[in-house]
Amino acid sequence: CRSGRALVFGENKHGQLGLGDFVSSATPKPVPALQCRPVVRLCCGAAHTLAQTTTGLLWAWGCNEHGQLGLGDVRPRFRPEQVKAMRVSRCVDVAAGSRHTLALSERGLVFACGAGGSGQLGSGGIAEAEPYPRVVDALKEVGRCLLVACGHSHSLALVRNEDSLRDCVYGWGLGSSGQLGVPRERLEDRKFALLPQRLRLDTSLRVVDITSGPLAHHTFILVAAAPPGDGQHMVAPRHSLRTAIDAEELSQTLRRLVAEHEADGAQVKALTKAVGAAFSSVSVLNASFRRHEGPLGLSEEVSGVDLLKVRKAYRTLVFELKSSELIATLGRATLSICDELSKQRVPTDDPENLCVFLVLFENPLLLGEHRTSLFPGFHLALQRLTAAVLSLPKDSQRLLFGWLKRLPSEYFGRVVDVMQQYVTFTLTQPGQNRSDASAAVLMLNTLWDLNIEMDGILPEWCFHNSTISQSEELQEHYNQWQQQQSLVFSYCKYPFLLDAEAKRRLLYFDSKLKMESSMQELVAQTWRQGLPVESTFEQLLQFRVRREHLLGDFCGQLWWRLQNKPTCLGLPLSVEFVGELGVDAGGLRKECLQLGLRQLYERTSLFFELEELPGLVWFRPTSKYFDKDFVPEDCKAASQLELHSPEWVHHLPEIAGAIVGLAVFNGIYLDLRIHPLVFRFLVQRQVSVAFEDLLAVQPTLHRSLTSLRKADVRSLGLAWSVRLPGATEDTDLGSSGEAFVGPSEVERFVSSYAEAALVGAARKQVEGFVNSAVGCMAVGAAFRLCTAHDLELLICGLPDLGQFKDLEASCSYVNGFTADSPTVRYFWQAVHSMSEVFKRKLLLFSTGCDRAPILGLKALNFTIGLSAADLDHLPTANTCVNQLNLPRYSSLEMTRDRLYASLEHHAGFGFA
């Protein structure tokens, strides 16, 4: 019928209606076993029935006395059963005789089964019963078959000759009534043709179709005038579903209607009714938008659905005609089909029944940008669609998601976007069942795993959900997850939902707990030592440093604490610059850590710049961290400071790691120039590398080793050689003992070489950095939520500054300034004309850090205040609260000059 369902009626004494009984029916009834299947062709024999689907699967039921069902036996079937023998050789055409069956495969081979007493199987002999489909070999030698047809006891095929490229009709079986179109003299006993015989037709005609009937002893051939020349003429295939949706045809129809201004006419109403029937039918959508090229059969890699056609059809329906009635009909159809899928009425025993899910995920009515105004019931459709996907059997889910992960990113991202917006809607709209969000999150979790398998076809931020990340309930979810309440749903079980800012908040919560724990432990230690708590207890991790000796003072004190009092590293950091006024409320500690790390870059040999990645550094494999093993005097001049160890000069990797760890623990951004590979080490808390990591660090070497892996090294006769004094010795790379190098030895060599190039002699330095950083982070359970990319954002902030317009929009003003004050307007004019270098200097001057926070400049809490200083004074800043103080400058030139002067000389309290 129009919706793609198979309807049957009539006699049923052999179960040929497929209803599971023997009751005849005078009214059409759907075949339950074929419901939702994309059936494209039905054929009836005398007492058996055949059904072919859009992907070439063949179903058979009814009388099977002669094996005409092709199921390998002669037992009757009262319900449709798939012909397993045709799963590999997919059907493009099928025909039923009285007691035999012909099936045409997509490779052009004809298969025959059933009764062969009149030679209608084309095997060259007489067979009472053939229960297995057998290839008609005689036709295979002629050419490729295009169409098949069956009469009562005869068979027909249209075959294209491989040499002449002409289409010829062949017949075989019973021909006593002339139904084969060949003289009786050419028949066996003047009755039978045991092998296919060619019909002689006028060469000026071409064959369009051939047909007969299960009770017929005659044949019809539809012909037309042959086109000039000998070119091939393609016969219309019988395996295309008439009700299947064709995007091109639909688009042309709608454009014609729009051009003719018939938007309210009968044609539009008819189209609307057809759209409702088609888009509410699982079988129609399963049979629609098929790719014309490639094999009919589906696999784990190929779904056969052309999603570009799907997107084009939806765009045409929703946005081109702009008919509210048509959109409402499509919305109702979408809700209906999702409801049918959710009630598990769809058989999932074959891939062809899963194509409907790919089509539905492309529906624009399910997306937030259109759904609210066009389809108010979208959330119900999504709820049912999600339930349907999650209720699929594991094998069906694996197949469906296998298709998804092989899609281009724009289609895979569409599915993620649909589910993300459904989660947001469920959590933000009143009256919604929040348990529906958990089902969508489970599906997103599967999509996240697929994304990882495909090496990140989508960036991590596509899976972040801003509603969950900003939720006030996040702390409660974290506590439940931390207490390992496995039966309680928690967002923290799915950390991909949380953006880096949300994870930063959880890390801050962990840090506060760690600080409290460290204080309690220090109190306990003091009591055990019998000392008065008031005189010895530390509430801060206090550093006293001289600006001119910052590297030696800070690193010496830090190493002493690492060695002698690691517990105190869990206290809040506080820094005092000796000889400078000012109390550290956050700004001084930021400046100290940033200056310390910068001096490690500039004054030591701890790092070297990667040749192929300028601006990024890696660990130098050396234990001499100062040039020519000479430690500058300002690094050794620390005798007047307490809690200082001069051994720090031999442990710079650990010092650098501790600076990073303290920055994370205290929420401070750093200019960390080490290659991002180190963030994965920090997340994994160990140093492990693979050959693939080499591509990101040394791409040229990676290409060379990749070429070596692909080469046929056995043909080169290579051996590993070690040059010794006076001789060259061949050395076996592995334990195989073979004389020459083979693929397994090459693989070991490549892996070992990659590890040596990435860490190798610098492994001690890398491990020292990682272990020290993780130790000083005082990480809790929240750290396990972070990916390497999250950790990079937490340490470094955003790599790009973004738009300073965002900073201006979120800026607040105090001490008499407003957004309309002339000096403020001069200031922003000067800022927007700055280069990126000076913009970073402005951030460093005002906030103590030249990086934008995770959420961008709009989240900086930047403040501009009026300074009481004279006009010849430079601007000042309070980095602890991100406040810039400006005198009331009277012109743009004055504001620009004073601002640039302050940015060029910003070191020291009072300036930064």
TrEMBL record:
Chain segments annotated as transmembrane: none
RCC repeats mapped onto the chain: 4-55, 56-107, 108-161, 167-213
Gene3D superfamilies recorded: Hect, E3 ligase catalytic domain, Hect, E3 ligase catalytic domains, Regulator of chromosome condensation 1/beta-lactamase-inhibitor protein II
Keywords, ordered alphabetically: Repeat, Transferase, Ubl conjugation pathway
Record SMART domains: HECTc
GO molecular function, one term: ubiquitin-protein transferase activity
Pfam family, one: HECT
InterPro entries with a match to the protein in the record: HECT_dom, Hect_E3_ubiquitin_ligase, RCC1/BLIP-II, Reg_chr_condens, Ub-ligase/GTPase-reg
Name of the protein: HECT domain-containing protein
